[in-house]
Structures are given as structure tokens and as C-alpha cells.
Amino acid sequence: MIHLTFPDNSVRDFAAGTTGAEIAAGISKSLAKKAVAVALDGALADLSEPITGDARLEIVTRDDPRALELIRHDAAHVMAEAVQELWPGTQVTIGPVIENGFYYDFKRDEPFTPEDLPVIEKKMREIIQRGDAFTKEVWSREEAKRFFLERGETYKVELVDAIPAGEDVKIYRQGDWLDLCRGPHMASTRQIGDSFKLMKVAGAYWRGDSDNEMLTRIYGTAWANDAELKAYLHMLEEAEKRDHRRLGREMDLFHFQEEGPGVVFWHAKGWSLFQSLVSYMRRRLAEDYDEVNAPQILDSSLWETSGHWGWYKENMFSVQCADTEAEDTRLFALKPMNCPGHVQIFKHGLKSYRDLPLRMAEFGAVHRYEPSGAMHGLMRVRGFTQDDAHIFCTEEQMAEECLKINDLILSVYEDFGFHEIVVKLSTRPEKRVGSDELWDHAESVMEKVLQQIADQSGGRIKTDILPGEGAFYGPKFEYTLRDAIGREWQCGTTQVDFNLPERFGAFYVDKDGEKKTPVMIHRAICGSMERFLGILIENFAGHFPLWLAPQQVIVTTITSEADEYAREVLAEMKAAGLRADIDLRNEKINYKVREHSLAKVPVIVVCGKREAEERTVNIRRLGSKHQTPMALAEAVSSLAEEAVAPDLRPAAE
RNA sequence: GCCGGUAUAGCUCAGCUGGUAGAGCACCUGAUUUGUAAUCAGGGGGUCGCGGGUUCGAAUCCUGCUGCCGGCACCA
């Protein structure tokens, strides 16, 4: 006998080996029909799985949020069956559930095309209609390997070999088709339903390793019902509308062109955004940091000393005089980072322990030769500007400096409206420099700091650990923010470095007169200004808060009789420091409103004959269909107040 | 870098199986003086990404390169 506890806390006894399906059937016919799985102590399991011990039991129906994972997983299996039915000889490899859907990686000599997707979908619907039951079998390793080998499924043989000793080799069967899988699955393919769609084909390396063969991946999305599917597809459309590359063009912010892959042409409005961001950051740094500027090109020998030439040569640009006859034939590197330059500044002149912590900031333009396939609008470019800083400090000051940086980063994000932040600690990677003792120490300090960050936020800031993701020279914190449509972006970083100061022989004179190597902390808040602006564009969908908007106000008229007054209004707006422009074109107000709305100008100030007589203005805000009449003076002062950057605003009462 | 797709006017796109380019918007000109998301009429604009090839003839077919797009890998 086993004791099963139901969601209502009632406990009932069953014979050991009873299945979830039997229990559901015992409760009601309709439940048996709706059930797709059971949860035993919260873990999903097959309905047909014999239950062997006491547990909390829930019958999971198709509308349970947990069923979604099963729907997607089952859909992946059905897709694999469909593909093998359509193109025999195609090998199946792995097919996991991912956020919003699933994929399956196939090995086929002929690649799939987008036109294949509807064909596969159709076949999937057939299989789903058949409604074959998913059944589990446990095979011996040898049996499984022999079976897949006979079928030419060599990838599956590798997967069987990868199953840890002592774990069962499980096979799930649906009709005539079967797959190696750890489960669980729903009762039948019919439970997948019809709310799925194949989205795209893409290449993917076998086991995620670029040294391996490339397979073809088919991505799909699947939902519990059509409404959810539709909502998801709609969300994708909305995300596309706020794509920064599209808005960059539509709002005339920047462009790229063929001669400069991965480098940005900032147009006036985009550059205004850029400058607003830099000015804001400068104000935030003014109190604690010294801003410097290190050279753009430096002899490659310096990069050899720093280690970059060895580690990242394939990602660096080199420069030389274009004239082969030039006297100086040395090879220079376009800086990919600011740190070596900052160490040179630190080294210039003797530093005392009294100078520490020394915080050196730079809005440094760096260039990195990114792989061609990696570039993506402003998000991944070859030339970008870092809001970089290096803090030279003592071992003892390290933890406090990390916390100070943390406060600054969180407060900056807050000012841009990002409230959901995750701080992740990345620990030692396989390829690294420095002794294990050094890493042990640095990681333990940072673990404590991470805990403190979590504690002092009162649980608001989430933390995480990314094993092996640290930089080669030290562990790091990565700051990830969540945007308006729920996407996560890693922006800020704090990295401890016990490599570079030593390599360059940087030191300070300590209290006892001895030379000591300082600890160096690299930190960035926005990371790349270009990328951060890309994130802001998408986050706000181009609808910037007033303090950031490149053009804050457009003054426009209804008839030319108001032109004179409109000029006066413009002058007052400008005098109040607003970025304002005027539109006196002989066009209908509808036309002008539409145009400026599409250009995403936050404030349209309309002046007609009436306003001119009354010395008022009519304000229409972007996104609103309403207008607010206001006295001119009042409009100017309220807009000017709204346009003050968050860091300059008087603290809230 | 790898796999696949793609490149036609400033933008969005059409151009079937090869017969020397077309629309809408934008732009320019004229008319219209207009009350909150497109006033009307006229006009100009493209060596069809770049280089080879096939062909009597290439935007269209083949091929190389480049950019871009979607993934994968990478991201100091």
C-alpha cells in the first residue's frame, strides 16, 4: 500500500504500482480524459508510470501551466517523426524544450528550407490526429546502441554513450516511431493540440561545439490554445516594431553602410541621444572618478605585454602607416580595451597608498574585430564606446569598492526605469592566468560581496553564479537588466584583475615604504554606449522620456496667421533649454500631427489663431489623442521641469 | 567564422518560365490657410550590391565576393 496526498490534503491509499491514469479514472471520467501527466511531490511524471511510494499527487491537466512544457516536448517528438516520415534517412539528434517553444536538430544532407515548414506542420497534424499513445520502455545500453546503429542513427548512439552509468536508457514510443528520451510525456500525441507553429530553420553545431559538424535546427512554438499562440505571435510582431535598427532608420538616429561593417554613422538625433547619455554618466562619475583619455593606437608590443595580443589577436585591428616607405614601420593596435592605457597613466609618476583607491574613468572608443556573423545593429558592433573605469586599490579596499560600484550601477539603471536586476558572479574559467590561491581568495571575497548585494537590496536584487564564465584574468560580476517587454540584457560588469598590474609592473608605495602591486577592478555600467542606446530605443520603443528625447518639442501652426506667435513660442521653449523646433509649413494640422507623431516627437505644441490671441498653447503628447490647452508660460515651465534629467531633479519629498 | 536566406528608387515592395524596370510613401513644383494621425494636381529620380560567366539578349540563369537577415559558435 502507498499513501498519496491529494491537493486538498486528503490522503488516500492505493496499491503500489497504481498509475496516475488509473487514479484519475477513479476520480472521474472527465478528469481521466483531461489528464496529461501527474506531478509527484511536484515532479512531473507519465500518467502511465506506476507509482511506487508515498507522495503528494496532483493530476496535471492540459490547461495546467506545467503542461506547456509537455506540449512542447511532445511537439518536438512529433516534429521529428514527421521529418523522418517525410525524408527517410534524416537523422534525429536532440530536441529540447526552450522558452516559448522547442527545437529539434537534424542531420540531413539536403538542408531544410522555409518552404518545408508548412509541409512538416501538415504531417505533424496528421500524426497528432492519429493520437498514438506515448509509451515508455527501458532498454539495455547494448540493445539501444545496436538498434540506433542499425538505423544509421550515429548521433543517437553517441547520446546513449553519454548517459551516465546507472541511469536507465529510456525509449519513448509513439505509434511506429520511437526516440531516446528521459521523458516525461503526455498520454497521447492528440494532447499536443493544434496551437503550434514551426518558426524557422537554422544551423546549429552538434553538441554546441564549433569544431563539430553543423546540423539543421528547426524551431517551433507551441501553446495550450490558439489564443495563447496568437498572443505570442502578436508579441513577436510588437517586438519587431521596436527593433532598434528599424527605429534607428525611421527616427533618423543612425545608419550603417557596406564600407564600414559594424561601425555606426550617428546622425544628429542619434548623436543627441548619445551625448545625453554620456553627459548623464559624466555627472554620475564627477564626484568619485577622474576622467582620462588614453591613446587610440599603441605599439603592438604594449599589447603583447598586456597579454591581449596573445589572447585576442584574432579580434584586434592593427594599423600602420599606409605608405610602405614610411620611416616608422612598427605595427600598432587600435585599442580593443582601455585598461592597458589606464595602467600607463597609473604608472606615470610614483603612486602612494594615499592615492588609493584611484578611480580612473574613460568614455573610450574601442575597436574589436567581431566575427562577421556576430554583428547585430548597435547591439554588437566593431567600434564602440565603453563607459569604462579602472579602480586601483589595495586588497583590503576591494570589497568596499565592489559595493560602491554596485550602488552606482543600480542607481543608474533605476534612473532609466530598469528595476529588475540580476547580479551574476562568474567564476574561474578553464583557460586562465594566476594561481589557484589567488582565484580562491578573489572568488571568496566576491561571493561575500554578492551576498551583501542581495542582503542590502532587501531581496529585490536577484543573484546567481555562472561557474567557469569568468574572464581569464579574474572573476567578475555581471549585471543583467530586464526591459519593458521582459527581455534580459547583460550590461554592467565588475571584474577583479590580478594579472594586468603585475604584467605592467604597476605598483604603489605602501605605508612601510615597500612597493606593492595594486588590485585593479575593471567596471562598466552601460557597457557599450552604442548597445545601451540600442536597448533604450527598444525598451522605450522610440518613445523616449523627455530628458532623453533628441527633439523634445515641435511647435506648429494651424494657419500662417499664427506664424509670428509660434516663433515667439519657439524662442521661449529654447530659452528654457528645451530642444524645440518649428513647423510652419502650409499643411493641414492633421498632416503635421501625423508626421510628428510618426517621428515620435514627445510634445506637439499647436498654435492657432485663437492661441495667438490668448497667448496660450495647445499641447498634444505623443501616444495621446487628447489635447491640453495651457498658458504659454505654464507650458514652458512644466515642460522644462519634466525635461530635467533624473539625477538633477530635486529629491522627492 | 559556420549553416541557411537575402540584396530592385531615400523607405516598403512588385517584376511569372530570360526580351534593355514599376507602385505606394518620401522628395521637388504649383494650387490650397487648413483646429489635432495622410488636401489636390504635376514632376524628377534606379549602370536592379559588386565582379566574372552562359546567351543574339540577364534584374531574372550559373559562379565568386561583399553587405544585410535568422540561428549556431564567439563576446577580453
TrEMBL record:
Cofactors, names only: Zn(2+)
HAMAP family: Thr_tRNA_synth (MF_00184)
Lineage of source species: Bacteria, Pseudomonadati, Pseudomonadota, Alphaproteobacteria, Hyphomicrobiales
The protein's name in its UniProt record: Threonine--tRNA ligase
Source organism per UniProt: Stappia taiwanensis
GO cellular component: cytosol
Localization in the cell: Cytoplasm
Sequence positions that bind Zn(2+): 339, 390, 522
Keywords: Aminoacyl-tRNA synthetase, ATP-binding, Cytoplasm, Ligase, Metal-binding, Nucleotide-binding, Protein biosynthesis, RNA-binding, tRNA-binding, Zinc
Family: Belongs to the class-II aminoacyl-tRNA synthetase family.
